[in-house]
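re: that chain from earlier
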Amino acid sequence: MSEITTLAGRDETGGRPYPLWIERGIFALMVGAFMAFAGRITDWVDHPIAGPFAGYVVYPFTLLALAEMMGRIVQHRHGSKL
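^ sequence. v structure.
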């Protein structure tokens, strides 16, 4: 059985190679943004508990979600036949 199919039994054709370096670049930019602005966000909130929480918990998760959304947009644009 050398024929490759999916678990549902569908035959699928291969698409174009995906440029993973774009997503890695987006993620690297988000890591740089975190390193550049996390302290400023902590200072801006100006609260002993909420400041570090905003700067070191909420902000990185927001950046991670933004990077994921941007990556999905790139995947969608790359996969669709425009």
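The helical segments are 20-45, 50-79.
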